[in-house]
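sorry for the late reply, my laptop died twice this morning and i had to redo everyting from scratch. anyway the thing you sent over, i finally got around to it. pasting the sequence first so we're on the same page, its 320 residues, then the predicted structure underneath. double check i copied it right bc i was rushing
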Amino acid sequence: MPFWKSAAALLLASLAATAQAAYPEKPIRLVIGFPAGGPLDQHARLLAERLQAVLGQPLIIDYKAGAGGTVGAQDVMKAPADGYTLMLANTGVMVINPALYSKLPYQTLRDFTPIARTAMQPLALLVNPQVPVNSLKDFVAYAKARPGQVNYGSAGNGGISHLVPEMFKNATGLYMVHIPYRGSAPAFTDLMGGQVQFMAESIPQAAAYHKQGKVRAIAVTSRERNPALPDIPTVMESGIRDFEVVGFYGFLAPANLPREVTAKLSDAFRQVLTSPEIRNRMIAQGADPAFLGSEDFAKYLAAEMPRWADAVKKSGARLD
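ok and here's the structure:
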């Protein structure tokens, strides 16, 4: 190679390395595939200020709502892989949608660079207070004695509040009837009113209604008990082996993000999650701090996808 070509190549490599070392040099756009005010928005806002202090640049939240987070994911997939577009996603967007939609415009493991898993989101299993049970074991016996007579509500077909009860049915051999709603609020209303007898819901809302006596929590789906419901046992404590089912929150970027940028972003999230204040506020929002770096997050996604795909298949849910 002529000397001038070799020198030019070295110069370009040096400039690229310098640019990556200086990252970030401008604000970072954070895409959320759901409307403002929801759980993902709360999670992003909780982390954004501390991330700005670590990275030296603000995160600008950009809402791209639609199709269960698919619109936002597609927007990020098409963005430049330069570290200035990130996505905050959850279990539904990354691991349930690929099994739920037959014509999904993205592939989780192909089209994105995992940056960091930041939280896990356990659910509580709830019953109407008039159901004469005080434990999960009691409920299983009650429902087995009434096949097809127990209804469970969900926030809609194919969502986590639908699939977790389906996993529970498969683990226990119960026959319950699914009643889908348009959102968790009307499902909760009917649970409190007795039109449905059972429901799986995120911890903050479940804990609030449980403490008011409007519903009764009988188990949580995480491996450990939840601080918001410290007296409520886990499903595994209640006798159903290996039943740990939790959602997650995680940050991703377009595929082929430079390794140095990926590492810098991942480490920034790690630093933020070491803050006791951030961890306590996250728990208050119903999400357990659970950091995984880029490589471990990628492995986690690969392991979760077939598990949720199996749940979707057994439930018969499809959305297209």
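Residues 37 and 132 are 36 Å apart (CA to CA).
thats about all i looked at so far, will dig more tmrw
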